[in-house]
Design goal:
The protein is mainly beta. The protein has one helix at residues 2-18; strands at 27-28, 31-32, 38-46, 53-55, 61-67, 72-79, 84-97, 100-107, 122-127, 133-135, 144-151. A hairpin with an 8-residue loop joins strand 10 (133-135) and strand 11 (144-151).
């Protein structure tokens, strides 16, 4: 009886020590547990007024981010009205903000495609529970832009 009790406690202790959290939105040692690297395409635009959500070809512009493993990125926007393509690039870092994984993008140069409340060359993106990127531009009446990762980097 004593041996089986000890065996039970050993297995219980082993089980408790081997448990870990696999939370996809945590930052540990300055690196995310989720993968942002790859190509992310704009899939939805939502204005500040009700019923102002557009998707697909109905959106005013098409846009994508390419996040590289060396913490650089490129953002490209194709404006359907002007038929012009604008590209901007820079570096990114991740920070934990209110228990969310947030990406702070710093552009090399100012650009009209920087979605920012501050008018600077910085932009913030958050990974939501559906593993989509959302901007924070809506906090100052800009549109809410949602991006979906469409491919990994090889």
């Amino acid at each position: 009886m004593k041996t089986s009790t000890y065996t039970f406690y050993i297995f219980l202790l082993f089980g408790l020590l081997s448990c870990s959290s696999d939370d996809d939105n945590t930052v540990e040692n300055n690196a995310p547990t989720t993968t942002i690297y790859g190509i992310w395409n704009l899939i939805e635009m939502q204005g500040s007024t009700p019923n102002s959500t557009t998707t697909g070809d109905a959106m005013e512009w098409q846009e994508s981010y390419v996040f590289n493993t060396n913490n650089t990125f490129t953002k490209t926007r194709f404006d359907k009205n002007t038929e012009e393509t604008t590209e901007a690039s820079g570096t990114f870092e991740w920070v934990e903000n209110e228990n969310q994984l947030q990406f702070k993008l710093t552009y090399t140069d100012e650009s009209i495609i920087v979605g920012s409340c501050t008018g600077t060359s910085e932009e913030n993106l958050i990974i939501n529970d559906s593993y989509q990127l959302k901007n924070t531009w809506n906090e100052c009446d800009g549109p809410t832009l949602t991006y979906q990762r469409t491919s990994n980097l090889d």
